[in-house]
Amino acid sequence: MPYYDDIMVPAHLRPFVRRILCAQIRETVSETVPARPTGFTYIGWLAQGTGMATANDQAYDYASGAVHFSGQLTTFDTEYTLTGPAVHYLAELQGSAAFSILDRDIGALRNQAIMLGSEITQQPTTRAFEAILERLTQDSTVIVPPQITEALRQIEARNGALSIADLAQNLGMSDRHFHRQFLRIVGMPPKTFAVCQRVLTALKLRTQTPDMPISDVAYAAGFADQSHLTRMFKQYMRTTPAKVEIDSDGTLRSLVAKV
Questions:
Q1: For 190-210, how does the pLDDT look when each residue is reduced to its tens digit (9 = 90+)?
Q2: What is the model's pTM?
Q3: Structural domains in the chain, sorted by start
């Protein structure tokens, strides 16, 4: 499977972009990658090659040069295939950036892809992808409610290990209103987003410190105990914490855990 390498995000793009990643397939082969929830949305550019994604029995074809947006994932029938030689860039967006850029209900775009245009250059370079992102973000005037911005900051700072009900109360919002606003702007409910952050924290720990006892991983990632971690891992990763080191989904580990 292709691995995605991290590329430094320019300072002027950081309000919108958490990470820029790039994968290359140098041979004339097809690589199929199972996708998993990360809690974040993505803008991608298939700078070279072709691709296809499937989610909820829908198929999306990517021609060379395609610029695309990928919504939040909540399903496990999702995968994408790159046919090389291929170069694929991904911008992992800040929690509310997709809402700011697209000015659309991001919750309604779950498990969907949107084509944002096509950009074909002679040289598929990082600078060319940055220019695409600059054009997409430069006209953004959508205002995100400060309560949602603060909620994202607190959830990410705590790796999801906090009470969502207490968070809503502290922000002066009812549970229902907070849920509705967060889903519309971020693309998934706040509790789901928080659990996803805890699962990814556990994935990083399992990948980077494989000798750490799983019970310690559970507590470090904010789970009540090992059984709670195992239940959530099965739900979000389709595997158990004990088996994650031999899980075939190496691409997610390269995206999240940088291995």
A1: 999 999 999 989 988 888 888
A2: 0.91
A3: 5-137 (2.60.120.10), 146-256 (1.10.10.60)
